[in-house]
Task: structure prediction
Amino acid sequence: MDHNIKKKSREFAVKVIRLHKQLSAVKKESVMSEELLRSGAGVGADLIKTEYAMGNNDQTARIYKALQSCVEAKYWLDLLYETQYITEFEFKDTTKSCDELGNLIIGLIKNRKAAPAKQ
Result:
């Protein structure tokens, strides 16, 4: 697994965890922020699991799961912003990280598709 994608997924998870802590403590919001926490931290967890996958198909499925978690995290960020639980800065900053990570995952998927199958 590419070091950059691991680094970005960890940075995104830390950002999401901090946002969740702030939303829980200050805004007393728990439902959407817990969904954000689950999906946002899940991206990195799914990517780490690819290192222990049982073959190429399992590895590819876990990478797709990481992409799905990333897309879901963005959905929760959108809702938190639209309902005014997070500021415009928090939204733009976290969404930017989410988009960058999503693009890296998409690139990883494209590279796997382009690579010849291992025998």
